[in-house]
Amino acid sequence: MSEQSFLQAQKVEAIGQLTAGLAHDFNNLLHVIAGNLELASHFTDENETLKEAVNRAMLATQKGGQLTQQLLTFARKQRLEPKRVNLNTLVVEFSEMLVRTLGSKVDLRLDLRPGLPACVLDPVHMEMALLNVLINARDAMSEGGKVTLGTSFIAERERTESHGLPPGSYVVLCVIDEGAGMTPDVLRQAVEPFFTTKGFGTGLGLAMVHGFVQQSHGRLELESRPGQGTTVKMLFPAALESHAAGTVGDPSTGAKTILVVEDNDDVRQVAERYLRALGYRAIPAHSAEEALRLLDQFRTVDLVFTDIMMPGGMNGVELAERVRTRFPGMPVLLTTGYVEELAGAATPSGMVTLVKPYRQAELAERLKQAFAGSGQSAASFRHEG
Fold it and tell me: Which end of the chain has fewer surrounding CB within 10 Å, N or C?
């Protein structure tokens, strides 16, 4: 790596750390606002003016949440839900929406390699990334033009090494436009957050794409010259083996008791209100250490619902491990607005995660998944004193 590339990588990493921290705090604020607005909406039935005001405020919090997710994706700390995906199928199914978004001046052409292997990535974030790249292509062609969206496959060692990739098989998604192109200076800054040449927007488009591709264990490549258009390549490891998907049950809530572990009082109160509205009992805890003491005190806790980032010496993931060791079979639901490498060894296997800000319906669905994933009835979690 050249000194210039190394300094650029350091700068992007520093911006990412700052961005992720701000997004985490902002997510907590949004969650409190959105949660209280949802609770208030139950009392606006006879006041249309108030109902409209609440609905508009809720829409604004949703947009704020989307912005923080873009920031977290850039910082590679966004919670992804990877699935086995065939990019050819994704592109074809998404193409109608892409054509409408690009408009009549843009001629979108598909060049898809037959028999393309699948890859494992989050399809929703993949669509967002592709949409961002294509919007950039459209904006670079003020008079319109052709955009080619293609797929390919590389496995030869020489080719993977030329892309700076470890040996293996890779699926490539490529977008080629006929736009104005970028100067070398602009190209070097293209994936930095808040950098834009358009004079409008957040400048998070390519930054978000870059973060998503890296978090998906892939590589983003940009090639561009003034007056000669731009080529954007996203390379992802191919998934050559099949993985069976599990099923999720739908047990009733009954009158289960949930231990809510959250140091932020406002966030915890929203969670407690949601749980009570869903028919659960809620016991609050301000830290992981307090949660373990309460688990010993209350002998009928059915699930632990904990934030991941916590003050003190134990975070939510460590608490989940302690709970699993001390109370085998106890389901745990993790929540966070700031996710860093939750896959693999960082997260206990089988744990369900909920991203903030969340709605009451999302919490209900994740709780069902957590209970179903434990594979045991609520009675089996009750331990003898």
Answer: C
Residue 379 lies inside a defined structural domain of this protein:
no
Question: What residues make up the domain containing 346?
Answer: 257-374
Report the run of H or E that residue 110 belongs to, with start and end.
strand 106-111
Which of 212, 239, 266 finishes a domain?
239
The long-range contacts involving 20-26, CB below 8 angstroms and separated by at least 24 positions, are 20/71, 20/72, 20/75, 20/77, 20/338, 20/340, 21/338, 22/71, 23/68, 23/71, 23/72, 23/75, 23/77, 23/337, 23/338, 24/309, 24/336, 24/337, 24/338, 26/64, 26/68
Instruction: Say whether both 29 and 110 belong to one domain.
Output: no
Distance CA 376, CA 239 (A): 32
Domain identity same for 262 and 298: yes
Given pLDDT bands bounded at 50, 70 and 90, which one contains residue 47?
A: confident
Model confidence at 239, pLDDT cuts 50, 70, 90, reads confident
Tell me the two tokens of residue 261. Answer: 């572990």
Q: Residue 357, preceding bond cis, omega within 30 degrees?
A: yes
The answer to whether position 249 is within a domain reads no
106 bridge partner residues:
145
223, 188 in Cβ contact below 8 A? no
What was the pLDDT predicted at 376?
A: 42
Which has the minimum average pLDDT: 171-180, 294-303, 374-383? Answer: 374-383
The lowest-confidence range among 207-216, 239-248, 293-302, 363-372 is 239-248
Give the residue with greater pLDDT, 259 vs 265. 259
Neighbours of 200 (CB within 10 A): 7
Instruction: Give, as one character, the DSSP assignment of residue 242.
Output: -
* 120 domain residue, yes or no: yes
H/E stretch holding 27? helix 3-41
